[in-house]
Prior knowledge:
Chain A: One of its GO terms (molecular function) is ATP binding. By secondary structure, chain A is of the alpha/beta class. Chain A is built from 7 helices and 10 strands.
Amino acid sequence: MEAPPDNDVLWARSLHFTHPDGSPGLAGVSIAVREGEILAVSGPRGSGKTTLLRCLSGLEPVREGEVWFNSTPLHTLGPAHRERLRRDRFCWIGPEPGLVPELNAWENAALPLMLRGTSRRRAKTTALEWLERLDIGEAARKRPHRLRQSERQRVSIARALAPAPTVLFADEPTAPLHRADRGHVLRTLTSAARSHGITVVLATHDPETAALADRTVNLLDGRPVRTVHLPEIPDAEGRAACSISV
Amino acid sequence: MLDLRLTRAARPAVQLRRLLVAAASAGTGFLLLSCLGYALKRPEAAGSAALRLAWCVVPVAATVYLALAVARTDPGTRPRPGLSAIGLGPARLMAVSSLVTALSTTLGSLVALSLFLHLRGDLTGLPFDGAGASFLAAGKSLPLAATLTLLAVVPVVATVAVALALRPSDPRPVVRPQRRYLPFVRQAGGPAAGGPAAGGRTGEVEAAGGGGAAGKGTPAAAAPAGVIDPRFTSPSLTDKPDDEGAGDTPAGLPWAVALVAAGLTAQAYAGRTPPTPAFTFTTVPTGAGFFLLGWLLTAVGLVLAAPGLTHLCGRLLQCARPGALRLLAGRGLMAEATRIGRPLGILCAVTAAGYAVTTLYDSPGRPFGPLSALGALVVAGCAFATLLTVAVETRQGRAETTDALLRLGAPATVLRGAAALRAFALLAFFAPLTLAIAALAAFPLTR
């Protein structure tokens, strides 16, 4: 078992995954994420993007294949070790903000830092700085239900960036937003990640979003492919319009 | 049929909760039938029989409350997208919930009836050498209509209550009353933002600005209006309540404290001249009216005060620079104050009443009868089971938050620690309070 090369921070080799109900998830994915880059994992819905991110971040146990993080074999670690790794090195942004409803914005953003044992004062300073940077400084004392969706999503991004993770996993971070908000959120995310040298693995089905990344890996049916263009549907002329009883 | 399949395919914990409802219903039904037996045995003592029946209101209320809590927690009858897609929406699920409640309470009533008949000796011979013949009216024929009416009380009331509580309703947008940030208004809780946990109040609409009315008063919206004193719309004033999580402070704590005080006062007043005849459940002398009124006021006050006190408890838990553990525990308690507080208050009231009653019956001349014991068991058991059920409901409601925290990598020990801290704080706060109130309530009786 050899360790991956030095400039790859995260590395998967022939990763297979089957969901507990038996439906296929990933079928032999091998990717390498370099340090400080923004890697887009693109593909239509159901192509295994989220599953790949969950496997890479240690949320799902890997049974077939290997996942390495900085020469740590994730596929051999137990759940407790993976949890600590997730807390200390990774951060996650989902399609839903997933904020704790009873904490206000800065407390939400400071929560990962506090969970790592940072003092409250330093956690608060860092969280407020990040909220300022993401342009929601004046909402820092509001609770999530009084924020709009895009603001909540930015709080979620601040929460992910505040502890300065090594790798940031963003799973369709702009899915529930309109296009204007989407662009804003994505630009802040990518620029913050670039200026702080944070590696980002970004799952998206949107080619515009993928264009902001350094590199794109296309997935289709759990496999990395060069192109996701499917063969054209043959001309429908001459067929009955609404026939489902073939 | 699909409805029944939904109820059958449930986990053992859910079935256990339904069985608890059935057991409570059985106990209550047996108490009601015993009242009937007493009335049959002594037709001349109508007043005493009516008093016994009146006391049965307490177990009936406790049983209905438990049934309500169990129906709310039932995962089989919660609106689900899959079922909604085939037309089994909230309205039908409300019907299913009512049906399940009706089934379990009727089962309990049937158990009560068969037990009652068995003890009377209608089914087999009179058991236990006829020890229970006094209140069971053995030997007299049981009037059918009265029996059925009494047995139907719990199922009917519980079913109607569940249907009313779970009836589907659209979230109404809260029309925010125009608030002027005057000092005397602000100290009464600040902007009462309807949090997501605050039941019917959802959909906080940000009606900032509003044509110069002092609507929300966020600085950006209020500044162009120009007519509002900036003192009242400065960020430090408008934002502070949110910082402290005061958005959904349960109202009514002052009233509840006043009620408790009034109740204790009424008891103390009645205690100046203790009623000379034996004061028990079944024989209330004329002078004891104030006692009962005082107990009632104290109990209602405790129930009303508990949400506010729970909120206060959470606030105390998270004050003074909290870390992640105290923050999660305290804020969680503040957010769930209303939901947890009510059954907690009921449990406190029941405990206090139990303490006072034990003091009352502590003399050798007044033994604690089997029916009183059964009633006390039903009420206390229902109160405790309701609190546990509501705790389960709270955990279900916070499942998404817990998931988000786990995805963040929050250690499970922190989450468990927060839950334990919450429970410990509530126990440490409410146990001395309940004991103090119980001691005060029992004090006039023991002089």
